[in-house]
Amino acid sequence: MSFRYSSLTRAGKIFYRRFFPVPKSPYTIGEVKDICAVNLVPPETLINFFKNCLKKLKEIKGEEVGDYFEFGVFNGSSIGSMYLARNELGLGSMRLFGFDAFQGLPPGSEKEDAGVYKTGFYTCSFEKMQQCLSRRNVNPDDITWIKGWYNETLTDDTIKKFSLKKIGVVFIDCDTYSSSKSVLDFLKPLITGPVIICFDDWKLYDLDVKGEGEYRSFNEFLENNSQFKAEEIKSYNRKSKSFLVTSIKV
Ligand SMILES: C[S@@+](CC[C@H](N)C(=O)[O-])C[C@H]1O[C@@H](n2cnc3c(N)ncnc32)[C@H](O)[C@@H]1O
Fold first, then answer.
1. pTM of the model
2. How many whole angstroms from 100 Cα to the centroid of ligand 1?
3. CB within 8 Å of 170: residues ≥ 6 apart
4. Whole-number pLDDT of residue 67
5. Superfamily for domain range 7-214+223-247
């Protein structure tokens, strides 16, 4: 299965977006006075969305909703929103994992996805990100950090080291085709029960209609792994897409 657009749908989207373009990322590579004040998605929007995801998983799976994996942490805004949503729902046993090199987008990013990204976009140091979280009453020590480039950290050793087994929600916000592909390949053996996977930049810079970015990595993933079924669920804004993914082997 896949979520590729038919040529008619694609043409319709291109036409519609001439009048109603998909909003661009509010972040720019230029000087940012207070990086902690940057919220790529309004926190309240994400907290509500995450709470709905957790309630949905609770209905399907019971109290053991599974852990939260975030790929692309930047200043901690989105993982902080999940921390607050989890605590509001009293799901303290759910572990939160943040995967990031904290050096912005990796070298070579401009060579893919029609050149819309640049190396170093969204750079925020690990120390600064921790300060940003503390300002939001989020305890960074209550989150497990897996620091480094994905080609070094998304390994079987990481799975073993952190006993990664049960996933609940996955937030993929590392932008490029190649990084999101590495994430999906890493997740493959871990998707054994229902999991909600969110793609933050599905439509950013029209990468979906260009057949690039997260649209490409997820569609290829589904096409190459017929054991997975995905159902689209309501996402938190126009540029993202979210899915309930299940494995039919289990
Ligand atoms: C758009 S930002 C994440 C924004 C964050 N989720 C939020 O809402 O505030 C993208 C992040 O992905 C990280 N990233 C992208 N590709 C990566 C890779 N291959 N390895 C490690 N980190 C990566 C960057 O360091 C950056 O912090």
1. 0.96
2. 6
3. 68, 69, 70, 71, 183, 187, 195, 196, 197, 198
4. 97
5. Vaccinia Virus protein VP39 (3.40.50.150)
